[in-house]
Specification:
Blueprint: E1 5-6, E2 11-12, H1 22-32, H2 36-55, H3 65-78
Antiparallel strand pairs: 1-2
Amino acid sequence: MDHLNDRPGWKCLACGELWPCATAQERLIEEFWAFPSILTIYLTAQMYDALGDLVADGQMAPADLFERFVAWARKAVVAPEGDDEGGPPADDPQQ
């Protein structure tokens, strides 16, 4: 099963962790490494969808939504695993 979000609770369908779980994050970075701005746009849209779902029943918005959905990706695509220049994953044959 893929590590996709399960609405309206925004947990991972595969592992039950908060989405995006660690596996989903890794896969998103691999998929969007050449287009970090598109990844940020996608995750921001997901964050706003989650916000709408999570507050629909009158609860307060979770305080960590930006960190959960967007901040990790910005850090990962700018300098993945100590690479100051960013770029494709180390095992990419097109390097």
